[in-house]
Amino acid sequence: MRIHNGLSRLGATLRDFIESIGYGTRTFLNVLKVSPGLLKRPSLIVEQLHFIGNYSMLIITLSGLFVGMVLGLQGYYTLNKYGAEQSLGLLVALGLSRELGPVITALLFAGRAGTSLTAEIGLMKAGEQLSAMEMMAVNPIQRVLAPRFWAGVISVPLLASVFSAVGVFGGYLVGVQLIGVDNGAFWSQMQDGVDIWKDIYNGFAKSVVFGIAITFIALYQGYEAQPTPEDVARATTRTVVISSLMIWWLDFMMTALMFSK
After folding, report:
1. I need a labelling partner for 229 at 20 to 30 A (CA). Which of 3, 58, 82, 169 fits?
2. Where do the domains of the chain lie?
């Protein structure tokens, strides 16, 4: 009996997982389908850019500064053992542009903006606002989901660029101003060693993929949540957990593809 009940629960869980993948794929395709209609009302995207991106700027900037400072400090003590402290600028720039910038920005975005999107959509559903739109012949996917989706896709790469730039400045403050690494060597090593396509472009591509994944997960969790406060809270938690795991998995896969040659 216990084995039978266990198999039944496993089968139900697997069925729910497959159904969620199907519903998610259908919702994603519907978002892409209605997106061209946003060209007539770009103000919807601009409004969400302000809400999603601008309100995330403070935590991204401060985090980037402190991560760059820590990376500069740790990098100096490591490079100093081998007499290569002049390469500190290169280490900081590569670490931020390739990995830390896109990944940490995506994690912060999921925690700050992703949860906000899930809660907002979930509360709109609980308040029957989405149903009211359908009654008025307004497509909630086009009016609510699509502008927020594209705002998130645009925001994450921009925020990742800000994070990396501020992080390099933080590394400069610690390495050059505090410890005393040569200013010219710090910048010249960085300029010579960082490739705009292999390093900066690949990091930018990662942040775009992260933005697509995080924003859609947040919107889908809110859109499919049951219209109760408890389920909206659980959907918000799922957004953070699923987004974080997705970021690490995508980061590994994209790193393996980009830097394998």
Report:
1. 58
2. 2-258
